[in-house]
Structure formats: C-alpha cells, structure tokens
Amino acid sequence: MKLTAQLKLLPTPEQADALRRTLEAANAACDYISRIAWDTHTFGKFDLQKICYDVVRETFGLAAQMTIRVLGKVGDAYKLDQRVCRTFRPHGAISYDNRILSYALPDSSVSIWTLDGRQAIPFVCGERQRQLLATQHGETDLASIRGEWFLFAVCEVEEPTPTDVEGVLGIDMGVTNIAVDSDGKIHSGKAITNVRYRHRSLRKKLQRKRTHGARRRLKKLAGQEYRFATWVNHNLSKRIVAKAKRTKRAIAVEDLTHIRTRVRAKRSQCATLHSWAFAQLQAFIAYKAALAGVRVHAVDPRNTSPCPNCGCIAKANRKTQASFVCTRCGLAGHADVIAAGNISGRAPVSVPHYPDADSSVD
Known about the structure:
Elements (H helix, E strand, L loop, with lengths): L1 E8 L3 H28 L4 H16 L3 H14 L16 E3 L4 E4 L4 E6 L2 E8 L2 H7 L2 E10 L2 E9 L11 E6 L3 E5 L4 E3 L1 H20 L2 H10 L2 H23 L3 E5 L4 H4 L7 H5 L3 H15 L3 E4 L23 E3 L6 E3 H12 L16
Parallel strand pairs: 8-11, 11-12
Antiparallel strand pairs: 1-5, 1-7, 2-6, 3-4, 4-5, 6-7, 8-9, 9-10, 13-14
C-alpha cells in the first residue's frame, strides 16, 4: 500500500528564495513544454523528451533529472484528455525523485536540488511520519502552501493478510448522523454541521463587505472547515476499524459513488449535500482497515431500509429522519441502525471452516 508522509521544511530565507525560484523555473518550463505539445500534438513524455529536452535545459537552467520530472508532469497532465492546452501555476507543486532529493533521517534533514545547487534543509514531522519515511519509495512532491514549504513523500507500507471474520459490521453514512453501525452506535454529525453552518454564514457576511480587512479574514479562515472535517473523519474511521478488528468482523459500507447526481435536494439543502465528505470517510476506512488486516465490502446502497422482520419496503415506514415503524408488522427502531443492519447482511462473508473434532485424516 502507498501512503503519503507530510513533512514541513524549515529553510533559511536564502534557501526559501532558492526553492521559490526553482518552482517558478520548473513550472515555466512546464508551460513551455505544454505549448510545444499542443502545437505538435505530441503528448507522450518520451516523445516530448526527444523534441525539447536540450532546449529546456539550456533555457531554464534545470538539471538533467529535473528536466525529466517536468517532462513527466506535462505528460501526466495530458493523460486525462488533449482537448485543451494545459497551463501550470507558477508555484504549483513539482516532483522529485531519489536522484535529486535524499533524506538524512538521523539529522532530520533533506538534500534537495535547487537552482542554487544542492541545499541541506531541516524538516519536522510527527513520529508516525518518521516511521513511514523508513519505507519511502518513489516520488516526493515539493509544495509551497501559504508561504510555508512542505514535502509529500510516497511510502510503501506492507499490508497484513486479512484475518478470518466471524461477522460483518455494517456502516450507514448520512448527513445528520455521519455514521451509524449495526451495533447501534450513532456518530452524530451535529458538531461538524454547526461548524460548516457557522463558516458558511461568516463567509457570506465577509464577502458582502468587500473590504481589505474582510479579505484578510477570509484568507485566514480558508481551509479551517476542511481541516476540521478531515480531523473528524480520521478519528471516526479509526474507531470503526478498531471496533471491527477487536470483534473479528469485516466492514460493510454503501457504495455512494455519484450519489449527488442521483439525489434530488431542495435549494436550501444543496450546500449541505455538497459539503458531505462521505468519500473521504470511506477512503480513510479503507486504508486504515487494510493496515489492520480488516476486510471492507462496498454494497449496493439501493433499498437499504426495508423492514428486517418482514422485508416491507415503503416510504411510509420512515416516519421521520430517525424513526422507523413498519406499516406491515409494526417493527420500530432507529432508522439508521436498521439500515446499518441491512447493509451488514448484504456483505459476502466467507465463514472460516473448522474441522469436526471426530473427523479423522487419512
């Protein structure tokens, strides 16, 4: 499995200036290569290398391997489609490989190529990131975020073999309740909903002012809502995976791909629906479960709220968002808990085989 370790660089002002000029030169080279690719209809990085490798090195002062990296960046940009000429932001992230960037873990520093030559720059990171760096393999992205410098290193982590399971933990995801499991544990979305509403209202208020102070405040607020939602999803996914591993169960989640195009919502609900970070939560559950040796199954989300007693499917069963009362047999309960139980029943599970004690082996 590939995971990304985030490191914060601590360059001196001179080193930061060298990093900035390197980003600008690399992205200017990407723009130059992109125009050639567009004019000549040559979009493969190897074909582009034959056309403009020497010119790019001489014009932009890039090292040989950095030139290869910017050619690769342009080639990757055109893999999606070739309908428009790609352009690149002056301070967009660029990729390094082990020929132009190396780690000195005992010294907590990196040796990185810049236009001013190799620079030894210290970095800081958490203990988890330091453990990941021991398995670093592949490219590392250099990025400038709000005037600070970060490295995003790709690390190879070995996945344990999934263990045998004795059941399935169903997870029903929603907006009111972020996640509800089939055991009846409800993870409310009230806190994150309140944060989103407060930030949305504050953004609208500041955007109407159109003053320099309002713009500075908006810039300071940028990303806070996203970071809070990410923190919530990380903690929630960790608890779900830990529970499944402790109880020797697999995890079943709904496959909610393209749900926003299938759901009809009122105008007042659009902002809430489009800020629902279900895909991030599912991704966090998937990779944490893989690291823990827990299986994850994505099931069909259609009709996940039938009565578990008689199988009745009717809109009238759902009296309110949280209340479920079957119109046929009268079974009542929390609607999301019932849905989570139905989700767990849809997951395919291979029950481990235990040979009979009386059976003999020839």
